[in-house]
Amino acid sequence: MTNSDESSSGGLHQILTELSLPLSEELITLALTHRSFAYESGGLPTNERLEFLGDSVIGLVITEELYQRFPDLDESRLSPLRSGVVSTRALADVARQLHLGESLRLGKGEEVTGGRDKSSILADALEALFGAIYVEHGLDGAKRAIVSMMSSAIDDSLSRGVMLDGKTALQELLASRGLGGPEYEIAESGPDHAKEFQATAIVSGSRISIGRGRSKREAEQEAARLAYEVLIESKQGPNESPAK
Q: Most-buried pick from 9, 117, 183, 223 (CB within 10 A)?
């Protein structure tokens, strides 16, 4: 790692130490090793196995946390809330707060195309980090880390109104204003192993918002949530397109 990488890694070490969840430098390095770096370095291990593990651990911990925090919500309301908390956007935001991008081991191609701030790569790295914590400290340790680091993501989802499925909320809002249903334009980019989808929400012919995610569904949900927020603020039908 570079001096900058070591400094960022040191900050991560400090956070983990404060949570009484120290990780070895070797395990942290593995969690931050992107496939592109491993390929260019002759086939080193990547963070994908830890990411696979961390994805499941996050899902379990967040599901239990929401179940305990909101005893009056049924499955139809808990499920979309969970989707918002563990979305690519939410995970990437947490990764940015931890400055994980500064410590990522990326190949030259990803480096020059802004991979250190690419949401899909950051989200994957955070999942890998939680996977590493699970390997080292078990479910109790992973739960402590996830609840601590993801608490703001839960609060953010609540404040943004993600108590309903985003697409359903947008559909109902448009119906209440006598407007037709939204349409979604889908574009995809990236290699097969790291596809990123972009969805543009279109209402009455106007492009309202753009959502991104690691699946078509996630991108559409993000676009719908953003469009909902735009239209709630405007308190009227779409005019000029704010999508960028």
A: 223
From 119, 143, 159, give the residue that closes a domain: 159
User: C-alpha distances in angstroms, 217 versus 15, 129, 196?
Assistant: 33, 25, 11
Could you give the residue numbers annotated as active site?
A: 55, 127
- Among the listed residues 174, 186, 193, the one whose alpha carbon sits nearest the alpha carbon of residue 219: 186
Same domain, 12 and 74: yes
**CATH code of the domain containing 29:** 1.10.1520.10
Burial of 162-183, coded b for 16+ CB within 10 Å and e otherwise, reads: bebbbbebbbebbeeeeeeebe
Q: Is residue 239 part of a domain?
A: no
Each residue's pLDDT tens digit, 183-202: 999 999 888 777 889 999 99
Based on the structure, what is the number of domains in the chain? 2
For residue 64, count other CB atoms closer than 10 A to its CB: 12
Judge whether 78 lies within some domain.
Answer: yes
Tell me which H or E stretch contains 88: helix 88-97
Residue 222 clears pLDDT 60, i.e. is over it: yes
147 and 120 co-located in one domain: yes
Distance of CA 224 to CAs 164, 176, 200, Å?
Answer: 11, 16, 9
Are 171 and 112 in a shared domain?
A: no
Cα distance between residue 202 and residue 74, in whole Å: 30
- The reply to whether 125 and 64 lie within a common domain is yes
In the chain the first and final C-alpha atoms are separated, in Å, by: 35
pTM over 0.85: no
Q: Which two tokens stand for residue 21?
A: 């969840």
Q: Are 200 and 184 in contact (CB under 8 A)?
A: yes
